[in-house]
Amino acid sequence: xxxxxxxxxxxxxxxxxxxxxxxxxxxxxxxxxxxxxxxxxxxxxxxxxxxxxxxxxxxxxxxxxxxxxxxxxxxxxxxxxxxxxxxxxxxxxxxxxxxxxxxxxxxxxxxxxxxxxxxxxxxxxxxxxxxxxxxxxxxxxxxxxxxxxxxxxxxxxxxxxxxxxxxxxxxxxxxxxxxxxxxxxxxxxxxxxxxxxxxxxxxxxxxxxxxxxxxxxxxxxxxxxxxxxxxxxxxxxxxxxxxxxxxxxxxxxxxxxxxxxxxxxxxxxxxxxxxxxxxxxxxxxxxxxxxxxxxxxxxxxxxxxxxxxxxxxxxxxxxxxxxxxxxxxxxxxxxxxxxxxxxxxxxxxxxxxxxxxxxxxxxxxxxxxxxxxxxxxxxxxxxx
Length: 384
What we know:
single chain, Rossmann fold, 2 domains, 7-stranded parallel sheet, disordered C terminus
């Protein structure tokens, strides 16, 4: 086989299942922009998703479409600098452009991408989660058996594909942190102390667990402040902790100040493909306390830049939070270690590996495979 042409620009198409403010869409758009900045011809195709039949879901979708139509809400696809085509599912084969690579980005797009004609390019599957947690496992598993090169965002997904689907060819393409957008100067612990969390009513995001941990921690630290942000408006089904400073759909440029306002960031999910918010918080000198939910286990190193607790264990999360907030010296040290973590997770490395996978450039993949342990990146002792 001849060596890949590492100079020729590629024609790349990402296929999205609709639009929105999800972290997965955000990652796809960011990768697409980075590849485009390298001179590649990148297109995003979004499938026109049918309206749901359930009344609540229908109303929510209708409201969202109206808000985006009048420009009162922007989604992540609006941030893409290249061409975007919204295509009815039955028109996919006719509307996807000729290319060198076409990439499925969600389980519902995998088979449609597989069915595209050869002119659209080599087929890839960008796996950002094991979507069986919210969908029919048999259907999701069927997509993971399709003969497409898999690109995965976390080691647990690479292990899953190898052990359950006998696929040891998946390329790890960890997400990165925008080092210009997410940064914060060294600071003293806040007075009163403050904890941060993402707000979501999606059950597997575990927000109720974080809120219970905060209530438990407030029994020990009554003046504990809370900052939070999200793409949903809180309601009575999942009320915010009293006194929470909540930001609804803040612009990306403002999220840095939210992270920096916290001393510790919580990630209470039951499962995560990667989970960018706690890593972004770390880049703003904010240690993370996360459940052992998948993705965060790649970047939260126990006792170095944060802590890991069992899924659903709000008592353990509260205990670690109280311990850390009551030990300013440890908090300062872990904040610096959290800041160092961003050196391992850069978007340059992520797009280097993404591009190399599309080109089948084994030399670049081999050269970027090794990642030093997080504690090897900084100096000093563990925080205990």
